[in-house]
Amino acid sequence: MIKEEVRKVVSKAKAAGVLRLVFHDAGTFEMGENSGGMNGSIVYELERPENAGLKKPVKILEKAKGEVDARRPVSWADMIAVAGAEAVSVCEGPIIPVVLGRLDSMKPDPEGRLPEETLDAFGLKKCFQRKGLSTQELVALSGAHTLGSKGFGNPVVFDNSYYKVLLEKPWMSSAGMSGMIGLPSDRALVEDDQCLRWIEKYANDQNLFFKDFKNAYVKLVNSGARWRSL
């Protein structure tokens, strides 16, 4: 039912924003404090500078959520987790199974937990480690930047062009718009040997990327989740 309603509102052009919503809701998880994570708290965090531009995808999903709620109440956390998976599949990416039953938080998560766009590879690896995610999962999840206007291939096709472009390092050239490609944190990944190993693997094998992205996505949307007791 959720998938059906999400499909009505999430077009290819809107997919990148919806996927970003998942990362910004789940990305607040910290293992040490066992707090934050995939709990729908993003709806209280939309004024934060790092969440600029996310009001639109929330508005899009609000419509779908209203339709589902009328038949059977659904949490924001479940709604966003399923919507992100659908956004990937609408753009020809892997099919990602998402289990349901997450409870929503009634308050915002602590600030300052999302990885900053200016982090180097060491900082990124440390940040993801605190969220229980490995270097390989960091590289696989970064592949989500293949969607949207970051300059990695077709903005509405979910494929492995992110990794192919990273290996070309187009920002090193002085030509026009090449400096606009990716975030500083994307560029930092290629300069790290551990990350580079995975970038090369995914650039050469899209199926491997799809498999690893799917597994990392499932782990991400389950991180920090509080579940309805069965």
How would you describe the overall organization of this protein?
InterPro entries: Ccp1-like, Haem_peroxidase, Haem_peroxidase_sf, Peroxidase_I, Peroxidases_AS, Peroxidases_heam-ligand_BS. Belongs to the peroxidase family. Ascorbate peroxidase subfamily. It is an enzyme of class 1 (oxidoreductase). Keywords: Heme, Iron, Metal-binding, Oxidoreductase, Peroxidase. It comes from Corymbia citriodora subsp. variegata. The chain is built from ten helices and no strands. Helix 2 packs across helix 3. The model has no long low-confidence stretch (mean pLDDT 95). It has 230 residues and is mainly alpha-helical.
The helix/strand order is HHHHHHHHHH
- Uncertain residue segments: none
Summed over residues and divided by their number, the pLDDT gives a mean of: 95
Q: How many strand elements?
A: 0
